[in-house]
Amino acid sequence: MIVAAAAGAAPVAWLVARAAGIVAFALLTTSVTLGLALSTKLLGNRRGKMLLGWHQTLLWTSLGMVVLHLAGLLLDPVLRFGFLAVLVPGAAPWRPLPVAAGIVTLWLMLVLASSFHVRRRIGQRRWRLLHYASSIAFTLGLYHALNVGSDLTGARGLIFVGVAAAPVLWLAYARILVPRTKPRTAPPRPPLPSAQPPLAQPPLDDPSAPRAAVPA
């Protein structure tokens, strides 16, 4: 009866949308944290390829949860969101600014996840510059999570911000402000002196060789 009452007070579609949204942001936070840890070389280079794969998988999984989040919003009988409201920033009639932040987060996540498949075409440098948008996606997603719904109000919201933002901010500080130490190199060795060829000595039986004066 308690479950039925809760389902009557809050439609199932809205509960699914809320749960999927929180899980999507948790996966996005984990992906961003892992990406920053890889860029700062704190995890070493031996497992870089494997961790990069996890970074990509977490981002795509987060996108999958966002799709479930949007499906719950479309099926919710109270909000009555249409496709434009969940795909176009500013088109939502309910809380348009926080919802627009979530939609921009969605498109940024899609661009970042797709960039893994065109990494060779755009080059490593452009790919890295593009991934700076992950910090924008994280910030907008956090703003969306705190201003939509009633799950993260009061103390729960502060705890949520601390848990999500603390590792991201610390790694961003390490990535941008902490100077990277260059590997020590041995000082160059001075060049060895070139060997001088010995002076040619005239043969003993050479008549042209100077002879010592004989005393009279």
Run of helices and strands: HHHHHHHHH
The proportion of residues forming helix, as a percent range, comes to: 55-70%
Q: Mean of the pLDDT scores?
A: 80
* Counted beta strands: 0
Distance linking N and C termini: 142 Å
What is the number of helices? 9
Shape: elongated
Number of domain modules: 1
The major beta sheet can be summarized as:
none
Give the helix/strand class.
mainly alpha
β-strand amount: under 5%
Tell me the Rg in angstroms.
34 Å
Low-confidence runs of at least 5 consecutive residues: 1-9
**Assembly state here?**
single chain
If you had to describe this structure to a student in words, what would you say it looks like?
The protein has helices spanning about 1-10, 10-40, 50-75, 85, 95-115, 120, 125-130, 135-145, 155-175. By secondary structure, it is mainly α. The chain has one domain (about 10-175). α2 (about 10-40) packs antiparallel against α3, α3 (about 50-75) packs antiparallel against α5 and α5 runs antiparallel to α8 (about 135-145). The longest helix has 28 residues, at about 10-40. Mean pLDDT is about 80; it is low at about 1-10.
